[in-house]
Design goal:
The complex is a heterodimer of chains A (362) and B (335).
Chain A (H helix, E strand, L loop, with lengths): L1 H28 L3 H11 L1 H18 L29 E3 L10 H14 L2 E3 L12 H37 L1 H16 L2 H14 L1 H7 L4 H12 L2 H15 L2 H8 L4 H37 L11 H11 E2 L2 E2 L2 H28 L7
Antiparallel strand pairs in A: 1-2, 3-4
Helix pairs in contact in A: 2-14, 3-5, 3-14, 5-6, 5-9, 5-10, 5-12, 6-10, 7-9, 10-12, 11-12, 12-13, 12-14, 13-14
Chain B lengths: L4 E12 L2 E13 L4 E5 L6 H9 L6 E4 L2 E4 L2 E2 L5 H7 L4 E4 L13 H12 L4 H14 L5 H4 L9 H13 L5 E5 L7 H18 L2 E6 L2 H7 L2 E6 L2 E7 H6 L4 H8 L40 H5 L5 E4 L7 E3 L15
Helix pairs in contact in B: 3-4, 3-6, 4-6, 6-7
Chain lengths: 362, 335
């Protein structure tokens, strides 16, 4: 009995020491916050699926000219709208007509390459065709390019203008901060949608002159107005974060070490702001996509023959008539838009959890 | 021998909507190499602001004035910003109250430690890393090489504070401002950190300005004590003299409010009545007068100057800014 007790006592320190070493080893081997965030996103299955899905959508929309899709605008007015046909009933069928609006040089080259690879083969009406005989899948994929462009534009203005504006306001403080943020407040107080509608309508009257002098089309106007307003919230978010950081003791510690401002910004401010910027971006892109669709739906955004998801919604609305319901014209565009919005939200949520420094880990 | 740091008539004013707030009002002291000066006072008494002003870290909204502000014989107020920047980190450093917020959560501590070296001495990465590891070893962190790659959240509070101390002492500064470095730590770790600071001070001859609430810490580590109230120095004394015969009623009140383990446990703790003075006020009265049990008409009409009250015990005089210095408080009288 006593022998066992003493042996247990003898064993205990050793056991606890090896446990300590294990804990220490785990701590020393543990990865940095960024790597950890990446791992968190990968471990969060929903967020990871959303990320992959968005990557696939982005790749498809970038490579749209190269895919063996039918032309998104070639009309076949003689035929009734075709219901969706399963891919195995005619995976690729002949009949491609290379009709597009004015494409850029790269897109033209891609279309040429596509014709060289696939000849006049094109996908069958997998998702059906619309009332004018245009292929719906092709229109959804080509339409996603507008959404991508709008999303990218909003991201870039948010990142470049919004982050700079907010960071300068937060770091400079005092009068500079007051002036910069009052400008943001003033722009914020404008009813955004009405101003955009107003601007576009008014400038529409001048479009001849505008396109003559500045080479501006309505589409670029549309992008400019979105860019003009879209950095406001980001500026506020970043300023708030920077204000909090400016009083952080590690910044004071770094200044005490004699660091200059550029160093402080690069080493301490930007990395600490980046997380919230990223999360905010993924959560705010859905609203800009919806906004584009809304304007196009009202006839103020993208114009035919170009395609955007908003215009597809118009077509879908037209399809709902007493004569019969071409359901695919409503369901597929909505599904495309809905799934992208959902994926962005899920990803944003996952990023927020992953980048939250207080987030618990099991 | 001239002192390392000489401050005289240091005044810091913040302009607020409700008028000028004098956070620091005519503070003066001198600090010699290897000496530890305790600065005691309640929150808002200006002890931190005064030292941030000395280090040149206050925001531009603060207005700093001083009759004399010299460090190592150089007049700080005439230095350009980049010259002051070069002084910071190399010759003066600071340890903060909360070791969690004093470290950037996104960087491994090795990078943060070597920051100072890269900024000042343009040391190579490898050299900086080696010295950072040595510094970590010096503050008693085991296996320093491996710890360089650890992130702040993976360390305990005591370890983080050691890292901060290592960071502050990396360039062997002549002056270390320690702003309540033990407040966020538990008592056993406090003792370790204090021991560490005094050991390092003995090795390197650093002068320490130790800002604290805790009279116990002052008694343990300091040579001399400055008591501040509402932005002014109200008493300055060698540590033994201060505890043996406090002169200012505020100091007496502070000492009387320290709970004693050998005292009457049934008696409620003595407290100083009232709340801390606002900083927007007239300059023609003793700012402690509204709370002072000994205040008389003169205290409300005239501001007392800091004067020598007791002869120097060694090289330092015992000074207090009070017309009623040395009179026993009613609360001190044992029942």
């Amino acid at each position: 009995m006593s022998a066992r007790a003493s042996s247990a006592r003898a064993a205990t320190p050793h056991a606890s020491r090896s446990k300590d070493e294990a804990v220490l080893g785990a701590a020393l081997a543990s990865p940095g916050p960024w790597r950890r965030a990446c791992e968190d996103v990968r471990a969060n299955r929903a967020a990871f699926v959303a990320l992959v899905f968005l990557a696939v959508v982005a790749a498809l929309s970038l490579l749209a000219p190269l895919l063996p899709l039918p032309s998104p605008i070639a009309l076949r007015l003689a035929d009734e709208p075709l219901a969706p046909a399963a891919p195995w009933n005619g995976f690729l069928v002949p009949g491609f007509q290379p009709e597009y609006w004015d494409l850029g040089a790269i897109d033209r080259a891609l279309v040429a390459l596509r014709q060289w690879i696939f000849g006049d083969l094109q996908t069958g009406p997998w998702l059906g065709t619309d009332q004018k005989g245009r292929d719906l899948l092709a229109r959804i994929v080509w339409g996603s390019r507008t959404s991508l462009a709008v999303g990218l534009l909003a991201t870039m203005t948010s990142l470049v203008v919004g982050v700079t504006w907010g960071a300068v306001a937060g770091l400079a403080g005092g009068r500079v901060d007051q002036v910069l943020m009052r400008i943001v407040d003033a722009l914020y107080s404008l009813p955004f949608i009405f101003v955009v509608i107003f601007l576009i309508t008014v400038l529409d009257g001048w479009r001849e002159e505008l396109s003559g002098v500045l080479g501006l089309e309505r589409e670029s106007l549309f992008y400019v107005t979105i860019g003009l307003f879209y950095w406001l919230t980001m500026a506020r978010v970043v300023r708030g974060q920077v204000l909090q950081l400016r009083n952080a003791e590690f910044l004071a510690a770094s200044r005490l070490a004699g660091a200059r401002w550029p160093w402080l910004i690069r080493m301490h401010v930007l990395p600490n702001v980046l997380g919230i910027v990223l999360v905010y971006l993924t959560l705010s892109i859905p609203s800009i996509l919806l906004f584009e669709s809304f304007l196009s739906f009202l006839g103020l955004g993208i114009e035919a023959p170009k395609v955007s998801w908003g215009l597809l919604a118009v077509d879908g609305a037209d399809a709902i008539s007493p004569l019969g319901l071409d359901w695919w014209l409503v369901v597929w565009p909505s599904a495309a838009m809905g799934s992208v919005l959902l994926a962005l939200n899920v990803l944003g949520d996952g990023l927020r959890d992953a980048l939250d420094p207080k987030g618990g880990r099991e | 021998m001239s002192a390392l740091l000489e401050v005289d008539g240091l005044t810091v004013t913040f302009h607020s909507r409700r008028g000028e707030a004098r956070a620091v009002d005519g503070v003066g002291y001198s600090l010699e190499a290897g000496e530890t000066l305790g600065i005691v006072g309640e929150s808002g008494s200006g002890k931190s602001v005064a030292h941030l002003a000395i280090l040149g870290l206050l925001p531009s909204s603060a207005h700093v004035e001083a009759r004399r502000l010299t460090f190592g014989g150089r007049d700080l107020s005439t230095l350009r910003e980049d010259e002051r920047r070069r002084l910071r980190g190399r010759e003066m450093a600071m340890v903060f109250q909360d070791p969690m917020s004093a470290l950037n959560p996104l960087l491994p501590i090795g990078l943060q430690l070597s920051e100072v070296l890269e900024v000042h001495e343009s040391a190579t990465r490898r050299e900086a890393r080696r010295r950072a590891a040595t510094a970590l070893g010096e503050v008693g962190i085991s296996d320093p090489e491996a710890r360089l790659d650890v992130y702040p959240h993976e360390m305990s509070g005591g370890m983080r504070q050691r890292v901060c101390i290592a960071m502050a002492l990396l360039c062997r500064p002549k002056l270390l401002v320690a702003d309540e470095p033990t407040t966020a730590l538990d008592v056993t770790i406090q003792a370790q950190v204090l021991d560490l600071l005094s050991d390092l001070q003995k090795q390197h001859g650093t002068a320490i300005a130790f800002i604290t609430h805790s009279l116990g810490v002052v008694a343990g580590i300091c040579d001399r004590v400055l008591v501040m109230y509402a932005g002014r120095v109200v008493e300055e004394a060698p540590v033994d003299a201060l505890f043996a015969s406090p002169l200012h009623p505020y100091t007496r009140g502070l000492l009387a409010s320290v709970p004693r383990i050998d005292g009457d446990l049934g008696r409620p703790l003595a407290a100083i009545p009232g709340s801390p003075a606002t900083l927007v006020r007239s300059a023609s009265a003793c700012s402690f007068a509204p709370r002072c049990p000994l205040a008389e008409d003169r205290c409300r009409a005239e501001q007392p100057e800091l004067e020598v009250h007791a002869p120097a015990s060694r090289h330092d005089a015992h000074r207090a800014a009070c017309f009623r210095a040395g009179i026993t408080l009613p609360t001190e009288v044992a029942p």
